[in-house]
Amino acid sequence: MTLNSKNNRLKTLLEILFVSTRLGLTSFGGPIAHLGYFHEEYVRKRKWMDEKSYADLVALCQFLPGPASSQVGIGIGVMRGGVLGGIVSFIGFTLPSVIALVLFALILQGLNVADLSWIHGLKLVAVAVVAHAILGMAEKLTPDLKRKTIALFALVGTLLWQTAFSQVGVILVAGIAGFLLYREQTKSDDSKYEFPVSKTFAAICLSIFFALLVILPILRESTSISWIAVFDSFYRSGSLVFGGGHVVLPLLEREFVPTGWISEEAFLAGYGAAQAVPGPLFTFAAYIGAVMNGWKGGLLATFAIFLPAFLLILGSLPFWNMLRRNPKIKGALMGVNAAVVGILISAFYKPIWTSTILKPIDFAFAAILFSLLVYWKLPPWVIVVTGAIGGLLMSLL
Record's superkingdom (predicted)? Predict the structure, then answer.
């Protein structure tokens, strides 16, 4: 590798770190809101990916267990800068909330952050960001009546059938519908992205993922080493959860409260803290780990719960990249991409809209934030700051 190529690679990694860290500091509102922030930054602004590649990646990560938004961020980092790019993207997006939650665990466990007024303002920011992302994706991914109908099916299905596997089921049905409706699809794929990881490396990652699922419980039962038991609980939680961060929180409660590792009161305090910080909700694990064993426990918990996400995305993406270029699969992906739009609209209504737009003033302020983002074209971090200040001011009215 020449000096020039090394410098270019370092520049790319630093750029990924800078952008992902800024997103990690400003992406409030949960996993669906994160996808909106990613769309704004990576697709609209920086054009690191096109709409179709982004939608394909979102669909894959919705299908896989684990934190979907974090997996999307890792995937974008890998496509931009290889495995190191994925690691850097993950660190930038995740570390701010890990630090915040470890600090909460150490000094702020008694603070009821869920009731802070500026949090409501940040939820209104999420409304504006997600609405903007949905409009942009719908325009590109549902241009005809067939795909609009698939999106409608996905919307209705995920709203009325709210289980951990509803998104997976809807995506499967939409893929079959797309395959049948667009099987004569011959238009070439104009996406120019190659995934810089071999299928051999991907197969190794998938093998490690399944091996740890089997080996960790065996080690847990055969040894008395406490950190192995903790690692197993977090790894299993990160491996078997469909539906994102909101689903993993009750699962973690079942893993750690009955065992006495953390009290119910401390768990609930951390639950409020997790809602208050930007970034992925899976970083709630850092809080639990820090309560049990300080900052070292927080880092161990974070590594354990996110390791499955890394192994799955690195193990799946090379095969996904091959399939999405197969002419026989393109029709199915057209259906899946349309379904993603419907799924995002469904998540936009519940939980984002139903938990945020409670009064006319909420809708009015969300409309202002949307206009500042879409028409005035202010950067997302300005919208976040405006939302937080607006939330404080609204509480005084």
Answer: Bacteria
Report yes or no on 384 lying in a domain: no
Judged by average pLDDT, the poorest of 108-122, 205-219, 278-292 is 108-122
Kindly report, residue by residue over 240-254, the tens digit of the pLDDT: 776 556 557 666 877
Q: Which of 167, 197, 207, 209 is nearest to 309 (CA)?
A: 209
Transcribe 204-220 into DSSP letters: HHHHHHHHHHHHHHHHH
Structural domains in the chain (count): 1
Q: How confident is the model at residue 91 (pLDDT cuts 50, 70, 90)?
A: very high
Sign of the C-alpha dihedral computed for residues 362, 124, 265 and 221 taken in this order: positive
Q: Report if residue 374 sits inside a domain.
A: no
CA angle centred on 136, ends 134 and 140, rounded to 5°: 110
Residue 14 CA to residue 215 CA, distance in Å, equals 36
165 Rama sector, left if φ>0, alpha if ψ -120 to 50, beta otherwise: alpha
Can you say whether the dihedral through the CA atoms of 275, 96, 29, 71 is positive or negative? negative
Residue 201 has pLDDT above 90, yes or no: yes
Provide CB contacts within 8 A for 230, sequence distance 6+: 261, 289, 292, 297, 300, 301, 304
Is 186 inside any structural domain?
Answer: yes
Evaluate whether 117 touches 394 at the Cβ level (below 8 Å): yes
For the beta carbon of residue 208, count every other beta carbon within 10 angstroms: 17
Closest CA to 310 of 97, 28, 26, 94: 94
Q: Whole-angstrom Cα distance, residue 344 to residue 70? A: 16
d(CA 20, CA 91): 8
Q: pTM of the full predicted structure?
A: 0.77
Overall residue count recorded for the chain in this entry: 397
Provide mean pLDDT across the span 172-183.
90
User: Is 60 exceeded by the pLDDT of residue 110?
Assistant: no
Phi, psi (deg, nearest 5) at residue 216: -60, -45
| In the predicted structure, residue 105 carries a pLDDT above the cut 90 | no
- Domain for residue 364, yes or no? no
- C-alpha dihedral sign at 79, 82, 88, 94: positive
Location of structure tokens 């238009």: 187
The domain of 74 spans 10-350
Is the pLDDT assigned to residue 225 strictly greater than 70?
Answer: yes
